[in-house]
């Protein structure tokens, strides 16, 4: 049903979560929440971002777009290791 679909994670999520951790970040999976909430809560040096994980050609769905528009915090979309590295660099720059 809807709950099972909400919990589906992109195939690269565990790899990219591990990449965030290897760069010194804390990572919490929010994927079970669904409802357009980004997949990961990522923190480093006191800075916390929400991160949406997508496959290289993946598109954000309507709920994810709506969440992004209304969320007043920092949020990134990552599709690959370069995206992870850029996000962490940006987070460290803000710290």
Features:
globular, 95 residues, alpha+beta, four-stranded mixed β-sheet
Query: With helices defined by DSSP (H or I, 4 residues minimum), what is the helix count?
Result: 4
Order of SSEs: HHEEEHEH
Give the termini separation.
41 Å
In what order do the strands lie side by side in the largest sheet? 1-2-3-4
Overall mean pLDDT = 91
Instruction: Report helical residue fraction.
Output: 40-55%
Q: How many DSSP-defined strands?
A: 4
Structural class based on helices, strands and sheet pairing: alpha+beta
Rg to the nearest angstrom?
A: 13 Å
Poorly predicted spans? 1-6
Shape: globular
Explain what this protein looks like in three dimensions.
This protein is an alpha+beta fold. Helices cover 40% and strands 21% of the residues. The protein contains four helices and four strands. The protein has helices at 2-6, 13-22, 62-70, 81-94, and strands at residues 26-29, 40-44, 47-53, 75-78. Strands 1-2-3-4 form a four-stranded mixed β-sheet, with helices on one face. A hairpin with a 2-residue loop joins strand 2 (40-44) and strand 3 (47-53). The radius of gyration is 13 Å and the shape is globular. The chain starts with a helix and ends with a helix.
């Amino acid at each position: 049903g809807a709950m099972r679909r909400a919990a589906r994670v992109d195939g690269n999520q565990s790899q990219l979560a591990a990449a965030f951790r290897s760069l010194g970040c804390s990572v919490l999976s929010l994927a079970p929440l669904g409802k357009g909430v980004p997949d990961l809560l990522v923190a480093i040096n006191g800075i916390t971002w929400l991160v949406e994980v997508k496959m290289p050609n993946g598109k954000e769905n309507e709920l994810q777009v709506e969440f992004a528009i209304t969320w007043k915090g920092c949020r990134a979309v990552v599709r690959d290791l370069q995206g992870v590295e850029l996000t962490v660099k940006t987070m460290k720059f803000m710290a």
